[in-house]
Write a structure and sequence with these properties.
InterPro entries: SGNH_hydro_sf. Keywords: Signal. It comes from Acidipropionibacterium jensenii. This protein has one domain (41-275): 3-Layer(aba) Sandwich (Rossmann fold), CATH 3.40.50. The longest helix is centred in the first third of the chain and has 21 residues, at 3-23. Helix 6 (145-162) runs parallel beside helix 8. The chain has 277 residues and is an alpha/beta fold. It is built from 10 helices and 10 strands. A 6-stranded parallel beta sheet has the order 2-3-1-4-5-6, with helices on both faces. Strands 7-8 form a two-stranded antiparallel sheet. Strands 9-10 form a two-stranded antiparallel ribbon. It is globular and about 55 Å long.
Length: 277
């Protein structure tokens, strides 16, 4: 079969699969619900968050969260939020959210090293709260999940010992949406975008380890749970009989990033966790 005929056959197959999936997906409608359940931070929580000195290490989904924070604080009558992009402690007496990109996407170990460097500098002597958020591309089907979690937990333990006055927030890894038919075709042709079921299943394995270790600490930001929740029902899928979760389309700007609603939902959870410290 020629390459052209193979592509045509794949396209026909995917259209049939997509049509079936549009009707029922694991017992749920695959259409996007009209409403998204999200919390709204209280005035007390907003004031508490903006009064803290916070460092947030991240990449692009982190910018979505920062956009959500700024949108949450923007209405009149809200406390103000000072956001500063910096790898060193800002010269300020009041509260702030300092943030900076960590390492490069696809290299979580490099991000751990970069976060450690920043926290062992002036930032670690200045902030009250610190958090590193990995990206969805940092955990894929090719990741040794157990080994990565051991390195994550070791890094956090070392930083906590070195900076006992800083409250470190633990977080899960973000998710991606279900693949559309074009993405499925590309994956079948070997052009993997690392956004398929096996990749989200690996993220769920990592996130379960994080939840088991840290969810009872009170210092836990479960961004994956926020991303997969729509109308209180998580976007659950199964692979080989094992549940995993995906980013809800109603919260997504694209397969891996948050839209305005998703950004505000994640920001609200971030505020709630920090305000409780």
């Amino acid at each position: 079969m020629t390459r052209k005929l193979l592509l045509v056959a794949l396209a026909v197959t995917l259209v049939v699969v997509a049509a079936a999936s549009a009707r029922v997906l694991h017992g749920r409608s695959a259409t996007v619900p009209a409403a998204v359940e999200k919390k709204t931070p209280t005035a007390t929580e907003l004031a508490s968050f903006s009064d803290r000195k916070i460092f947030f290490g991240h990449q692009s989904v982190g910018m979505n969260i920062i956009d959500g924070l700024q949108a949450t604080y923007s209405p009149s009558g809200r406390p103000t939020l000072t956001v500063v992009e910096s790898r060193t402690a800002p010269a300020r007496t009041g509260g702030y959210l300092a943030h900076a990109p960590m390492g490069v996407n696809g290299d979580p170990i490099g991000k751990f090293a970069d976060f450690t460097t920043v926290m062992n500098g002036s930032m670690g002597k200045a902030v009250d709260v610190a958090m590193l958020k990995l990206c969805y591309v940092d955990v894929t089907a090719q990741t040794d999940v157990d080994a990565l979690f051991k390195k994550y937990s070791a890094m956090m333990a070392q930083l906590e010992a070195a900076h006992p006055d800083v409250t470190f927030i633990y977080t899960t890894v973000p998710l991606t949406t279900d693949r559309g038919w074009k993405q499925k075709m590309k994956s079948w042709l070997g052009r993997d975008d690392q956004m398929g079921p096996a990749d989200n299943a690996a993220r769920e394995r990592f996130n379960q380890l994080v939840r088991k270790q840290y969810s009872q600490t009170g210092r836990f930001f479960d961004i994956a749970a926020v991303e997969s929740t729509m109308d209180s029902a998580p976007a659950e899928r199964k692979r080989d009989g094992v549940p995993y979760y995906v980013l809800n389309n109603g919260l997504a700007a694209d397969p891996g990033h948050l839209n305005g609603v998703g950004s505000r939902a994640a920001a609200a959870e971030f505020v709630s966790v920090v305000a409780a410290q």
